[in-house]
Structures are given as structure tokens and as C-alpha cells.
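User: quick one - fold this with L-tryptophanamide bound?
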Amino acid sequence: MENTVKKLYSAVQPTNNLTIGNYLGAIKQWVQLQDEYDCTFAIANMHAITVRQDPANLRRKTLELLALYIACGVDPQKCTLYLQSHVPCHAELAWVLNTFTYVGEMERMTQFKDKSAKHADNINMGLMDYPVLMAADILLYQADVVPVGLDQRQHLEITRDIAVRFNNIYSPTFTVPEGLYMKVGAKIADLSDPSKKMSKSAENPNGSIFLTDDRDTILRKFRRAVTDSGNEVKFDAENKPGVSNLLSIYSVFSDKTTAEAERDFEGKGYGDFKQAVGEVVADRLAPIQAEQARLLADKDYLNAVLKSGAEKAYSAARKTLSKVYKKIGFYQL
Ligand code: ATP
Ligand code: LTN
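Assistant: Sure. C-alpha cells for the protein plus L-tryptophanamide:
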């Protein structure tokens, strides 16, 4: 019976403040999936240091992210929640997988190219190796599915390639994971430039709605959001990218289909529309923010969650790593 429950794995980096893109592309789905799958969710602090971090800030962001996972509805009783650096197997497997990954493959990764351009003074090996560490995360837990935003699709594809490559050279060792992308919400665009993804490290903070933004800030940012020519609130990603992005945000935050969302704004102008999107987002975020603050005040509880999460994660990860070490010929005592 136990084998019929599929395994699910995902993670977010504890960098900057999360945006509604992270929430809709990742965490919101986790909550919906946790009853159906055997879930493991990590805080990817080892990925975070591929861009220079302030140590005190990284520590603080780690607990904030854990509190946020729980405040959003991820239940530590049902899922394994842990901090990546607490399980040394990630670095160990990543090293092995490095020898099954080609330099050319890593140089082609879009995120590597984007981040290299953005951090031209610090194009470190870790930045380039980021996808291999991510492959190690996923493969250690033998995950069947990995819910992520569309920006991570390329990393998931390379994870599958590495898994297949290893399985073919030795014998079936890793489950080959499937990406799970939501139909709406997998790619939330920047409010001031709908051709870009909403990102927590964007230069212009007005284009991103942070999960920590207060009501007035949220309403103001939506009021300023770029719309398109014309005056009809219609979903048309090609010709009306700004309006379509706002409609997607509205529909997922109000649990409506895009068609239902369009109907809500028939005969209404962009002004009313943007106000309504802002309100629905602010209303949804307020209780999450309150719960996150409450949890952050209870550090003992958060530490206990991390401790038991690390133990559970370690025992699963170690099993896979031992299998790998045996297959590649590492002498074991
Ligand atoms: P950064 O901008 O600092 O690189 P990020 O905003 O891309 O960070 P990550 O920690 O890399 O955030 O991603 C966490 C999760 O959020 C991933 O599953 C990612 O696919 C998803 N995600 C990020 N941005 C968006 C977006 N604009 N729309 C939908 N999902 C997103
Ligand atoms: N690179 C991911 C975060 C991440 C991840 C993972 C996601 C690290 N390890 C494993 C899914 C599975 C990102 O979202 N930027």
C-alpha cells in the first residue's frame, strides 16, 4: 500500500522576500498536494549562497521562510520540512552527479546566463553548478513529481537527463521525476514589465508584490501596474500581457477560472479592475502574514520542526546515497 503513494519534492531559496509569484508558482500548490503525495519540502540555503549573502540576513530569512511555509498551510505533521544544509548528502551526491554532467550543458542554462549577467563580478562555480545540486536534491528523495514554476523547467529537464544517464550506465537507481506546472500561476509576470517574470530579486520593487507588503503598498502597486491599450478586461496573453497577468493573479487568488474572472469585470474599466485585484490579494495575504509573525515568535517550535525534518530527510537521503556509492565503486566498510 505504502508504495502506491507517490513522492513529491520541492524547495525555495531563503533569499530576499518572497513574491506572489513564488506563492502561486510553488507554495500554494504544495498545500493542495500534501494530502495526495508523500511530500518533502526544503529550504534551499545551499543554493542561496551561489549569490553573495549577508550571514545574519540568511539566518533570519531561513526561519522566516519556514514560518511562511507553515503559515501558508504546509503541515509539518504531514510533510517533511527541513533545511538543505542540515543533510550533508546533498553536497555528497552533487559531487558524484557532477561527473555525469557536461560543462556545455551547464553553460547553456538560461538561469545561469541571466544570473551571470546580473552578478558579473561573482560568476562562481556554484552558480554554474546550481542545477546539479538541484538534481541531487530531487534524486536523493526518489521524487516522482516536482511542483515548480515554469522558470525551473530547464533545471528539471537536466535532472531527468542526469538520472537517465546514471540509470543507463549502472542499473535503475533514481526515479526519473516529472515536473508539475500549474496551468494558471506558473508564470506570474512583473507588474511594471509584463515581459519579465516577477522576481524576488528584481531591481524595481514596484513590479513585484512581496508577501510581506502591507495593504496600502499592495493597492498602490496594483494601481500602478502596466495595462495594455484598449479598455476591455480580456485574457489575451499575446496582445494583452499586462491585463492577462492581472487576470491570472485575480483568478488564482479568488479561486475562480479566468473566464469567471473576465465576467466579473464586464463593462468595467482598468481602474476598477486593478483596485479589485489589489483587494483580493491583500485580503488573502493578511491572515498569512499574521500567522507567520505568530510562528516567528515561537523559535523553539520552529527549531523542533527543523530537527525532526532533518532526521526524516537524512534517513531517506542516506539510503539513496549508499546505493549510489555502491554502484560507482566506492569501497564501503
Ligand atoms: P530569484 O529572483 O531570487 O532568483 P525567484 O523569485 O525565482 O528568485 P526561487 O527561490 O528561485 O525564486 O523560486 C522559488 C519557486 O517560485 C520556484 O518554484 C519558482 O519556479 C517559483 N517562481 C519564482 N518566480 C515565479 C513567478 N514569477 N511565477 C511563478 N512561479 C515563480
Ligand atoms: N532552484 C529552485 C529551488 C530549488 C528546488 C530544488 C526546486 C532548489 N532545489 C529542488 C525544486 C526541487 C528554484 O525554485 N529557484
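One thing worth noting: Residues 14 and 80 are 17 Å apart (CA to CA).
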